[in-house]
Amino acid sequence: MPKRSNTAYIDSPNSSRWPLNTYIALFRGINVGGNSSLPMKELVVLLEGMGARKVRTYIQSGNAVFLSPEKNASQLAKQLATEIRKRHGFEPHVLLLGPEAINMAIARNPFPEAEADPSRLHLGFLASTPKNPDLEKLNSLKKASERFHLSDNVFYLHAPEGVGRSRLAASTEKLLGVPMTDRNWRSVCKIRELLRE
Question: Are 121 and 185 spatial neighbours (Cβ–Cβ below 8 Å)?
């Protein structure tokens, strides 16, 4: 079966073809507890104003899939955060991923039996690979029922009792030493569905 391309094309006014790259944007800390409000309809308008095409979003916590001619994901993430600050008065952490990152994260899930309860299985997407993660401290914080696994830029956490009162979940980002954006298994799978639409 041929490999599916992650690049689309549009025709410019002069008929030359410009490549569009597929991105997944994960936002942290928006629309939580009435703070840092950014309705998804407004996010769509903002992204389209930056040249994005075929923007699709999932739930209010901030997940978007779109096409963009921008090749530099880091630069695009900074531009997006800056535009949100200008228009809404706060600057969220924005992590941009390619489709392969989501597909790989799903394929590498070390706790497949936990997929049956998707709200208890969490994936923390990291801004970079941790250089000095304090895994010993993380182990000391976890409950007997909890399990975790660090794989490159993804931190997998199975918390059968939920993450709300999990000391491990609360301390993960600090002990890994890099920015992290968390999504449960249901959300990750839904994002993959948006990529396939």
Answer: yes
